[in-house]
Amino acid sequence: MSILLNADLHCHSVVSDGTLTPEALAARAHANGVALWALTDHDEIGGQHRAAAAAHALGMDYLTGTEISVTFADTTVHIVGLGFDPDNAQLAQGLAATRGGRSERAQEMAQQLAHVGIRGAFEGALRYAGNPELISRTHFARFLVETGVCHDTSEVFRRFLTEGNPGYVPHRWATLGNAVRWIREAGGMAVIAHPARYRFTANEEYALFSEFKQHGGQGVEVVTGSHTPSEYPVYAAMAQEFGMAASRGSDFHSPNESHTDLGALPDLPGQLTPVWELLSDRILRAPRTTAG
Ligand code: AMP
Ligand code: MN
Ligand code: MN
Ligand code: MN
Question: Which-ligand-closest: CA of 69?
Fold first, then answer.
């Protein structure tokens, strides 16, 4: 498969913090010309069978996906898993354990917001959560926009819910080693999500890439809606330095919030190995209709 394939291997549905169903995302991806798609809900694979069925009904190839929350060097890092067996028990258990504690964390976030005069945030955020086990900062952000506290979700993350601001509750997610192992042992490939988003020193970033590789991680997102175009060549060079495959995905969450639509990204820089080349035998191919 060509590096020029319109692959979108990162987005979110109502099963985590997106606003569209897996079926609506599949339709939107297909309408935008996506040929290979993956739904990567945070710490959840509950939408995988629906997503694959919807993709196949539209003639789109599908890779299973998830985005695991990891704590590394006291920072939250996201690891995307692609092409795993969606019925693998160890992966399901690991993700369930990673989801655990979100409700308590959300209660604490709401308490902090109450101290600065914002009442009812837990119940308010929960109304936006399609999956109560996955209540996230995004759902709080939607509540704060709806109630007029902020104009948009980026203002929320500038003023609230982030380190040093009201509503920030530190949390310990999965370890890097476990996240990579769950994905690999389920037959999939682990990919570092949006590396430019982490506020790492050069040394910390180097440690993330080398430890990730030692654990068996194989890919890195280069072209993503969470990077600026000037960051693409930086992580293209990192992929080459570490001998890693490159991934491409919009990180689409919602038509109202996401500035990068499904399938609307530049191609990967040409010298890289795309993750879909290494995953070719894990792709769930759409049934081809033979011309009669
Ligand atoms: P959580 O897993 O509850 O910590 O929530 C993390 C989610 O919040 C991410 O997956 C994004 O969807 C969203 N998020 C984090 N930072 C920002 C930001 N600066 N602007 C918009 N959304 C953000
Ligand atoms: Mn998200
Ligand atoms: Mn992420
Ligand atoms: Mn994401």
Answer: 1
Contact 36, 13 (CB under 8 A): no
pLDDT given for residue 288 in this prediction:
84
Using the mean position of ligand 4's atoms as its centre, give its distance from the Cα of residue 68 in Å.
Answer: 9
| Distance, first Cα to last Cα, the chain | 26
Beta carbons within 8 Å of 195's beta carbon, 6+ residues apart:
205, 208, 209, 220, 221, 235, 238
pLDDT digits (tens, 9 = 90+) for 236-274: 999 999 999 999 999 999 999 999 999 999 999 989 999
- For 155-200, what is each residue's pLDDT tens digit? 999 999 999 999 999 999 999 999 999 999 999 999 999 999 999 9
Question: By the 8 A CB rule, do 86 and 65 touch?
Answer: no
The whole model's pTM is what?
Answer: 0.98
For residue 125, count other CB atoms closer than 10 A to its CB.
Answer: 23
**What is the C-alpha to C-alpha distance for residues 51 and 38, in angstroms, rounded to an integer?**
8
Cα 35 to ligand 4 centre (Å): 20
CA quadruple 268, 275, 284, 93: dihedral positive or negative?
negative
